[in-house]
Amino acid sequence: MTRWLGVALLPRTDHLRAAVRLQRDLGGDVPLRPPLDPDGNLPHVTLFQGPFSESLAPKEALGLIGAAAVEIGLRGEAALAGTGVAYQPTGWLFLTLERPRPLVELQAATLAVLERHLDRESFDGDKDVSRFTAAERASWRRYGYRYTGDAYAPHITLGRAEEETARELVRTAPDRVTVAKEWVFDRLSFYVMGEHGAHAQTLLEAPLGRP
């Protein structure tokens, strides 16, 4: 049976709550989907997500990814600079973050652990990728996920809205919300994907940098 799962970095508790508030303040009267919640869909930075076969053992995989984080030097906490609220086709609003080399290396290590367990027959071959960049299309073809390798774009998803609404919310964001300059992450999570790839249910969680 195919399982739709992901691996992510979770923000420290105070920053997790700050991301929830940011979504609400950014959307205002517009209900961005899916709604973020400290006890529901968690704000997160995805390392990878997709369809997996039953051969995947999440506990073992998370242990290997945690060990890789130690080797890379990501221990305890990872602080990432916030670079603003951005629009992403189609209809997405992202809190964009810097892309330091250790995070790129952690994603590569995550892919090395998970790739052989991907259920490639479940990739969406009919997905419209016309607005993807060339790197995003290459990532989609290989992994069934838009943001890997050269296309990796660390972000916290702040939700989705109608296309023009999303563009307007991003255009007016600097006048309506203040984005923290730094976001701190202290945990790795294996999660069940929900609406729009949300972090809907935590399967496993581990402190960052502790295998």
What would you note in describing this structure?
By secondary structure, the protein is α+β, with helices and mostly antiparallel strands. The protein has a single domain, classed as Cyclic Phosphodiesterase, Chain: A (Alpha-Beta Complex), CATH 3.90.1140. The chain has five helices and seven strands; from the N terminus they run E-H-E-H-E-E-H-H-E-H-E-E. It has helices spanning 13-27, 58-72, 101-114, 134-143, 163-176, and strands at residues 3-11, 45-52, 78-88, 92-97, 155-160, 182-193, 199-207. Strands 1, 2, 3, 4, 5, 6 and 7 form a seven-stranded antiparallel beta sheet that branches. Helix 2 (58-72) packs antiparallel against helix 3. The two termini are 28 Å apart. The model has no long low-confidence stretch (mean pLDDT 96). It comes from Streptomyces spongiicola. This is DUF1045 domain-containing protein. InterPro entries: Cyclic_Pdiesterase (IPR009097).
